[in-house]
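Re: the 192-residue chain
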Amino acid sequence: MTAKRGRPRNMETQNAILTASYELLLEVGFGAITIEKIAERAQVSKATIYKWWPNKGAVIMDGYMSAATARLPVPDTGSVFEDIRIHASNLVRFLTSREGKVITQIIGEGQSDPGLADEYRTRYIQPRRREAWGILEKGVERGELKKGLDIGLYIDLIYGPVFYRMLVTGEPMDDMIVPELLNALFGGIKLN
């Protein structure tokens, strides 16, 4: 067994940094945040932040994810349709909230910052994708969905329109978008 190097993170300090980065994100937007501003707000040194995170994007994504995760629980009602409806509806509600709209800034900044793009894909997009994958996989295992289903493709078909509206068309997303989308999609993959 290999011993860990250095001291473990102080949770109080870590939480102060994550809270500071999240508050600044909401107040001034991604582009205006600096490690110096986070350090000042959290009352820590820049060295402490750089000891635990490789760059501004990583600490901001961790701050954002610690705040967002509690708002996006993974349902397990026993029905794949209901679970995906709840999961996708929660995501739409979150993305259309003040806090959720921040992800558009992060995705936009990521177009010219490959490190940030990797951070939001790794810390935000991939975890949501794994959650949806698990829901659809359970649906196949329970016999609600066809065997051999290309789960990745169906995740794209469910969640892609949400991000397309959010990032490209700007069309509104109300409470009916998810049920309408799922009714159209599930007609082709349900067993019954």
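The chain has a mean pLDDT of 86.
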